[in-house]
Amino acid sequence: MSVRVALHSPTGSRSFLERGLLLLVMLIFLEGTVLTLGAASSPDISAQDNTGGGHDRRDDHRGIAGSHEHTNYTYTKKAFPVLSLDYHHIQVPFEISLWVLLASLMKLGFHLIPRLSSIVPESCLLIVVGLLVGGLIKLAGEEVPPVLDSNLFFLCLLPPIILDAGYFLPIRPFMENIGTILMFAVVGTLWNAFFVGGLLYAVCQIEGTYLSQVELLPCLLFGSIISAVDPVAVLAVFEEIHINELLHILVFGESLLNDAVTVVLYHLFEEYSGAGEVTPTDVILGVICFLIVSLGGIAVGAIYGILAAFTSRFTSHTRVIEPLFVFVYSYMAYLSAEMFHLSGIMALIACGAVMRPYVEANISHKSHTTVKYFLKMWSSVSETLIFIFLGVATVAGPHAWNWTFVSVTVILCLVSRVIGVVGLTFIINKFRIVKLTTKDQFIVAYGGLRGAIAFSLGYLLDKDLFPMRTMFLTAIITEIFFTVFVQGMTIKPLVDLLAVKKKQEAKRSINEEIHTQFLDHLLTGIEDICGHYGHHHWKDKLNRFNKKYIKKCLIAGERYKEPQLIAFYHKMEFKQAIELVESGGGVKLPSAMPSQVSMQNIQPKKLPPAVAERALPQFTKGREEEIRKILRSNLQKTRQRLRSYNRHTLVADPFEDGWNDFLLKKQRMIELEKKMTEMSNYLTVPAAPPDSPTMCRARLASGDDFKAEKAGAKVIPDPNAFYNIKASSDGVPTIQVDLASPQSPDSVNMLNEFSKRGATDQGLGQREGATRDEDQGLMMKLSSAGKEEKEEGGNKNPGLMRCLSDPGPSNEDEEDEPFLP
Amino acid sequence: MGSTNSTLSKIPNVEELMQETGFTPAHIVRLYDRFEALDKEKTGHLRPQDFGAINRLAMNPIGDRIIGAFFSPGQETVDFHSFVRILAHFRPADKKRPKDPSMPEPVNSRTSKLKFAFQLYDQDKDGKISRAELLQVLRSMLEMQVTEEQLESIADRTIQEADLDKDDAISFEEFRKSLEKVNIDHKMSIRFLR
């Protein structure tokens, strides 16, 4: 919003710009000063420790021990220290929080300055901020803390980002392109490592560069460190350019999967740099090691993923800690893999990808939202911190600048990347159905950004074994800066210039869903006819196996039988219902209509009695809450509604799109009214005027009795209630307005179904059940419900909770794609 | 190569077939071998029972529709030429083909593939997917797991979403439009038929 305002008024933009810059500068100063303070106070503490010998600092402050630096205490020995400053007591957490705060405020600040965020990618700005902070600290004369410590990086900063990536990995495109991705990741990285390492060594051997002490193995090690495409940097940059899915998954997948190669190469060269040579046996061992590292990492991740899925099956009574399981199991998967020197990144990805479909089927909607937001939050903060720390570390670290080495590195990386991508694509295109064009190749090559992982790996190097470590670090930092700044900044205009296909708005329609499933079946059938064991054959087999065995174990209750299409359909319906509620201000009741028939059928026809037991406890508290909520919201909205409701809004508003929809709606409304008048003849529900929403719903609920008399019962309490309320047209017009609201085809849909339902006896009772269930089982209790209804309500609860209790932002649609490929 | 040539010579009008469908000789031979394997009674024609013998196809929810697609209306058997012609729909599209408006649409182009899929939906061949036909497909795909009402509401919604001319059925154009974001070339191609 502020952006738009700023763009429209030049004076406004200037003030925003100024404000933003002022904010930034202030923050940087603040951060710098506090950190300096912190750094300054620590020497005091160390001095204290030396002299005082008291490990318990609290003793110091209570003045118990006696002779200490703080002379204040000798004066005020008698007086109780009312207020005292004790910074080092809280120093570490305070500084950590300050860093995190700085990172987040920076992020805020960037988006307030309108034009800046569109030209310069966030990562660049953050590095600059880091540079500034580091510079400030250095100016203050203090030693810059070694913030990008490898332990901190690998154990704390990296996992959230990778978990976020793995959990929300779009499985279908990933699996479809897995061959290409693996080729790029494994062969491409190997090629890069050896090319860069080898040529660097050759260059070093040239006379006049004074680099001849750099041996082959350290060069190769350097090559392997610097050749890995970094997932953090790729994520940061690619997220802003909204490139099409295929390219995104190619580069991103490559950055994730090359971790195994990097780990193996790194350890291999590091081990043998001391020895000075690598024998063929070592090479074979290296290959075996690679297989173990990658497959082992995946296995570890998969095991933890299954454990998490299994655990989530039992969490129906303790919903609040559900997200915790997701996080803890994933983190443990990462740590376990790192323990064995397996690929932690691949473990995390495997864990997230494996557990997701089952966990999502089991946990409540609120937990789902929590998981999503926590992951996004942590990964965002981590990413920001990483870039800031990169800046700080640049200022801090000892540098050994060598023009030749650094420039050759940068050039060679670029060259090797291009050659690698082009060469590999040539081979890969022979096996792909959808070939990669030159444009695609260019983007893949250009998008190979290096990042903090390379730096941390370099930082890990032993100073004694590698005397040229500082030179390596300098070169790595330069390469990172080059890729992030130059490539990161120019990739967006290049993408526009080359007219590369952008990401399409991923609103998957039900048509697409149905037809793609249909085509899947078709292709599987054709493959069977041809006797060809292809892609579809195996996918189909996996799906069957999944459905038959795995889902039974890992998904709670009856929900495992829910076919994917139905799940998708429900999701869509719920989303629309939520939108209707939010926008029309509305009534929950009619918005439930479109899905009423489907909603009540989350479970198959045969309901095991076990479900009833589980369902029962969930009602009482939740119901009261819901009553309160409904009362609150409806009483508020009543006022709104009375203002905005206007019968005439139904009729043409030519400026609204969906002109046809209006006419259709009107038509259907008329039909509906006709039907209602017909049915009102059969009414047996008392026609008392509705006084409150709750009562009105209670009345509807009383129609529950009709369920028992399903046979031939033409009574439809619902339309009756509608009709009643409509006639009285007072306090609770909530229900009507949505019918009239020019919202969306949803109303049409609802009316459509409504009229159709009106015509059929069947499913009447079910529909009522659904409407009631709609309010989270509110109305179930109000009637002398049979077992069936309880079961319905109980079963529906997770799903309904999903819909109505927590309307998440609808921007996140693309992540909610059907997770089963 | 010798066996390829000898097999090729057994098939009448092989050049014409290759021209029409774009298959290479190797492909034709492979398909011919498969044809013969399916044709257990060596009649040179396939009957629905032969297709039914493929176990996995029986498990496929739309298996019978696929089988039906091989047989032209009124015909009881399918010979090798028709067999190959149907399968040619699933060849990956040739990107380098020059767009020649005078030539008929190649059988493996996007439109032809979509038409083939459309025909599988549209069993009564009236050019539209009616609500009943859609329901049938949904029923067979979702098997026993959903109720009638659920199916009906899904079908309603599907038609409502795709139906632009409000005739309560999905025409080929509407079908094509609803799938414009899907990469049909990729989805409806079998790799080995290259």
Automatic annotation (TrEMBL), chain A:
Segments crossing the lipid bilayer: 21-40, 120-140, 152-169, 181-203, 215-237, 249-269, 284-310, 340-359, 380-397, 403-429, 441-460, 472-495
Compositional bias segments (type: Basic and acidic residues): 54-67
Reactions this protein catalyses: Na(+)(in) + H(+)(out) = Na(+)(out) + H(+)(in); Li(+)(in) + Na(+)(out) = Li(+)(out) + Na(+)(in); Li(+)(out) + H(+)(in) = Li(+)(in) + H(+)(out)
GO biological process: regulation of intracellular pH; sodium ion import across plasma membrane
InterPro entries cross-referenced by the UniProt entry: Cation/H_exchanger_CPA1, Cation/H_exchanger_TM, NaH_exchanger, NHE-1-like, NHE_CaM-bd
Domain of life: Eukaryota
Recorded coiled-coil stretches: none
Domain Cation/H+ exchanger transmembrane, chain residue ranges per copy: 101-495
GO molecular function terms noted in the UniProt entry: calmodulin binding; potassium:proton antiporter activity; sodium:proton antiporter activity
Membrane association type: Multi-pass membrane protein
UniProt-annotated stretches for the region Disordered: 46-67, 757-821
Localization: Basolateral cell membrane
Primary localization: membrane
Keywords (A to Z) from UniProt: Antiport, Calmodulin-binding, Cell membrane, Glycoprotein, Ion transport, Lipoprotein, Membrane, Palmitate, Phosphoprotein, Sodium, Sodium transport, Transmembrane, Transmembrane helix, Transport, Ubl conjugation
Pfam families referenced in this protein's UniProt entry, alphabetically: Na_H_Exchanger, NEXCaM_BD
GO cellular component terms given for this protein: basolateral plasma membrane
Domain Sodium/hydrogen exchanger regulatory region: 592-695
Compositionally biased region (Acidic residues): 811-821
Similarity field: Belongs to the monovalent cation:proton antiporter 1 (CPA1) transporter (TC 2.A.36) family.
UniProt cross-references to NCBIfam families, sorted A to Z: b_cpa1
Protein name: Sodium/hydrogen exchanger
Gene for this chain: SLC9A1
Automatic annotation (TrEMBL), chain B:
Keyword terms: Calcium, Cell membrane, Cytoplasm, Lipoprotein, Membrane, Metal-binding, Myristate, Nucleus, Phosphoprotein, Protein transport, Repeat, Transport
Gene Ontology CC entries for this record: cytoplasm; nucleus; plasma membrane
Chief subcellular location: membrane
Stored PROSITE patterns: EF_HAND_1, EF_HAND_2
InterPro entries: Calcineurin_B_homologous, EF-hand-dom_pair, EF_Hand_1_Ca_BS, EF_hand_dom
Stated family: Belongs to the calcineurin regulatory subunit family. CHP subfamily.
Protein name: EF-hand domain-containing protein
Source organism (scientific name): Oncorhynchus tshawytscha
